[in-house]
Amino acid sequence: MAPGTEQGCRDVEITVDSEADEETARVIATALSEHLGQPVEIVDESGGRISADDADWSEGGAVVTEREERLREEVREIMAGGPERGHEKIEDLGKLFVRDRLDMLFDDIAYEDGTFARYDDDDDLAADGLLTGVGTIDGRQVFFTANDYTVKAGSLGQMGVEKEIRLAERAVEAGAPIVRLIDSTGARLNAEERDEGDTHMDRYRGGKMFYNQCIHSGQVPQIGVLYGPDIAGSAYTPVFCDFLIMVDDISGMAIASPRIVEAMTGEAIDMEGLGGPDVHARHSGSADLVVPDEEAAVEAVEQLLSYLPQKYDAPNPRREARPPVKNPNGLDGVIPDAPNEAYDVHEVIDRVVDRESFFEIKPEFAREIVTGFARIAGRPVGVVANQPAHVSGAIFPDSAEKAAEFVWICDAYEIPLVYLCDTPGFMVGSKVEKEGILQRGRKFIYATSNAQVPKFCVITRKAYGAGIYAMCGPSFGPDATLALPSAEISVMGPDAAVHALFGGQLEDMEGETREQFVESAKQEFQKYIDIRKQAANMQVDELLPAGDLREQLTSRLRAFENKRRHERDRHHGTVLF
Asked: What share of the chain is helix, strand, coil (3-state, %, to 5)?
């Protein structure tokens, strides 16, 4: 036996009969090492190594008792999910088993909590139908919840709710994102789920889930992926997430099921028409992205996380800088001279941001404004851009709300903002007034005003009316207002200005006389919106060649990366998102 020395402990060597088999040697090595508290190596009479207590204890002759093996077998049974009929159901629906989803998304699962929840109640309630734990995605720690649809269609039971509450609170304590893989038909309504007089409104029951999502908003990123129809109160879980991804063909959400809707209102409608992906991507704006299948959902989560920090005050993830997909020096050729001529703002974005870095949010909703994450020289940014290819880039009630929400999220996670302004302003007319253009438009202006991240306003072409307010014009705290040669800044467009100034005279004119007068008045008006004169009066910080825009933004982002936030003397603002 080799004893320890004063300098430290060497391995203990034990010599055994040469006939000793390796399994016996491993058992001896493991037992003695645990007893002595130091490494042990077994050698034969000739000095040859037979076995040792290896660092990987599973290879070192571990002794597994019947009691431990019984527990491991029970864990394996629980991890298999619900009854066979539940597995047949997800196969019919074209869904993956929840653990296959987790394996697809996570590099590895570090641990789970509540595996034995409801174990003594019902063999069919594996983990009470909700898995919670921690794993890694691209090397980052991420907390997760995941409904198991094989267990009573993923419905939420008492212990499932308890697991969700604990998971969310611990994620915030740990300062890590939460990914919710949602595949639930809602609260479990079985009588055995609650005592008489019991409700979901208790202080520490179902309502606590939503309360936590609200108070945790902006503390850690919350990403939801919806895999099935989510009905009633539980449908708030996906919409309270910062971002919601819906899987096409299998997902949906609504405050009541089609059956309840018909019973209460007489409207006959299916789930797709009531709350399917198309409804929430195009009309309600509740879905940030619709993906074709579960593999695409995984890719979307990974992409989203690549722009978001671990928590609100942690550094944003950086990537190696890449050149744009299109030549930045071709930018000026993309923007037409005529203020009303359409073009696709994606052509601008492609010449400014890093190649393949633009990740659009709500691409099908309120398409007159484009929002999304990108990188400039490897740094994450949020892009808010008017879309002249759709209704000339005018701001409607829906687009105002869409942009406001995106700006607010970027500010919450300290992601710099780049505004690309080319808008005739807020839409006018009785229809948009009834839809709350003022009420919802103020949210956009409010979010821009209060965002304290680095903000850069780029006037690519027209900036008319209050549109420039929402798009972070000079009065709204930008760290720079940059103008391209095609820029026009005005209280209104030339056509509107002529009619506002000379409406009475025009009523008495007809034909060619009227046309000549209007054209002459518009040319006179143009003198007052000359961008060079406006730059001379410092109405913008810099007038620059379009081909320099990417380089300018890169330098300015670098200059303001240490910009500090400051407290305002109030509880909070009164404009509610």
From this structure: 40, 20, 40
Instruction: Using alpha carbons, select from 503, 498, 448 the residue that is nearest to residue 477.
Output: 448
Angle, helices 206-216/158-174, rounded to nearest 10 degrees: 20
Name the maximum alpha-carbon separation found in the chain.
119
Q: What are 282-318's pLDDT values in tens digits?
A: 999 999 999 999 999 999 999 999 999 999 999 999 9
Q: What are phi and psi of 226, to 5 degrees?
A: -105, 125
Tokens representing 134 are 């921690």
Structural domains in the chain?
A: 12-59 (no CATH), 81-305 (3.90.226.10), 328-487+540-559 (3.90.226.10)
CA distance 157 to 112: 18
Angle at 557 between CA 383 and CA 319, to 5 degrees: 75
pLDDT in tens, 530-560: 899 999 999 999 999 999 999 999 999 999 9
Residues linked to residue 463 through DSSP beta bridges, in sequence order: 423, 489
Q: List phi, psi (to 5°) of 21.
A: -80, 165
Q: Which amino acid is at 531?
A: I
Q: Are strands 49-52 and 40-43 parallel, antiparallel or unpaired?
A: antiparallel
Q: Are strands 369-376 and 359-361 parallel, antiparallel or unpaired?
A: antiparallel
